Amino acid sequence: MRTFRLMLLSVALLACSATAEQYTIHYDVSVTPERGEAAVTITLRGDSLPSRIEVHFDPDQHRDWRAEPALDIDDDVATWRPRASGDSLSYRFAINHKRDGDSYDAMITDDWAVLRSDKLVPPMAVKVAKGLQASAELDFDLPEGWSSAAPYESLSDADNRYRVTDPGRRFIRPKGWLILGSIASRQDVIADVGVRVAAPRGQDIRLQDALAFVNWTLPYLKEIFPDFPPRLLIVSADDPMWRGGLSGPNSLFMHGDRPLISGNRTSSLIHELVHVGTSIRGTDKSDWIVEGIAEYYAVEILRRSGGISELRFRETLDELAQWGKESDGLFTGRSSGATTARAVGVMRQLDRELRELSEGKKSLDDVATALAEDGGKISVKAFVDTAERLAGGDLESLADIKSRITAN
Fold first, then answer.
1. What pLDDT, on a 0 to 100 scale, did the predictor assign at position 14?
2. How confident is the model at residue 36, as a pLDDT?
3. SS3 labels along 81-124
4. Which domains are present in the chain?
5. For position 19, what pLDDT does the model report?
6. 56 has which bridge partners?
7. Helix (H) or strand (E) holding 197
8. What is the pLDDT of residues 325-341, one digit of tens each?
9. Closest to 217 in 3D by CA, of 237, 198, 195, 200
């Protein structure tokens, strides 16, 4: 289980901290609104460093690569071989990025910027000696009057400077949503989670309403996902940002116009909070599991917290079941709309069967908790195996899905 594995990792790190070799990663990010970009410099310091770092970048957003010593660039891969403490890699990142049509999932204006740090700093494949450990800091150089909100621990000795962690990784890079600029925010500690809700100053976004909604619902989510991150950043903004919700590590984005509870009695905000809590991701065959769990609990948590009645809860699930009939099937790639609604029906049937077989001792909660403890990419087989292990045998509610696995 993820909690147990992290405990073992912590014990091991404490045991070897006196002798383990360490190096530091320093990310310096300088934002220039008039150019619509950020200049990023990654500096390594230590007696021992990774011998090779392969950066897998987007040529449309990452450009002007430079390094000490020189690096090799082949299409969309930059290979860097640092040699001495103080060696650095730098590039420029174009922030604006359209998700579809005229809407953006990353944007910079004269007054603010909203983006994901795991896009700002692209994925890396690193060759590092066994036992070599890293620490990382992220430092923003911002225009006058700008500030930052990020889902990391803020360092007390400087503004806009953060300690970045990523348990189990020997090369740490920032992940999750960021908002920079002239921003307004509200924050509180809710169910032992430091929660901050932030948006560009001057936009008509009800930050206190969102914080109250999280205060109302997060304790119920933590009962299912006890390993929920200790920090949560919720970023919001109006048009032309994408009119929906998008989750990231320890964070999420929600368009300022999205209601906390939709007319069909689901909640996009709870849906994205479930994604943050599970930290699971799907494939072209299993995305329906990830989305189905999130959407099921977007309704179930409202019921448990008293946001909707038992009658409205059943009506909503019945309406989703009707919509799900429009789906061509669950194994259809990215799950959305009717496919996600159909997946909610599977979760509902599974929950019922587990409760009946166990006389109320097991439920879908146990499946969701187990999947979240493992985290990472999930397969259909892993989902079925987890549910059947908890049930102690075959499940009728998953018989058709299991037959598809066997057939393929």
1. 46
2. 98
3. CCCCCCCEEEEEEECCEEEECCEEEEEECCCEEEEEHHHHCCCE
4. 21-258 (2.60.40.3650), 280-407 (no CATH)
5. 52
6. 77
7. strand 193-200
8. 999 999 988 898 999 99
9. 195
With beta carbons less than 8 A apart as the criterion, state whether 55 and 75 touch: no
383-386: Cβ within 8 A, 24+ apart: 383/286, 383/289
What's the pLDDT at 169?
86
- Residue 398 DSSP label: G
0.70 exceeded by the pTM? Answer: yes
Tokens 């990792």, residue? 9
Distance CA 74, CA 86 (A): 25
CA distance 193 to 313: 27
Paired strand residues for 112? 181
Residues in the chain, total:
408
Given a contact cutoff of 8 angstroms between Cβ atoms, the answer to whether 79 and 71 are in contact is yes
Extract the residue ranges of the chain whose pLDDT is less than 70. Answer: 1-20, 157-158, 407-408
pLDDT computed for residue 70 by the predictor: 82
Angle at 284 between CA 76 and CA 105, to 5 degrees: 55
Give the per-residue pLDDT at 12.
46
Residue 74, Cβ density class (10 Å: 0-12 exposed, 13-18 middle, ≥19 buried):
exposed
pLDDT at 100: 84
pLDDT value at residue 18 = 45
DSSP string computed for 206-269? -HHHHHHHHHHHHHHHHHH-TT--SEEEEEEE-TTB-SSEEEETTEEEEETTS-SS-TTS--HH
Q: Specify the pLDDT at position 408.
A: 60
d(CA 180, CA 361): 46
Instruction: Say how many Å lie between the first and final Cα of the chain, rounded.
Output: 28
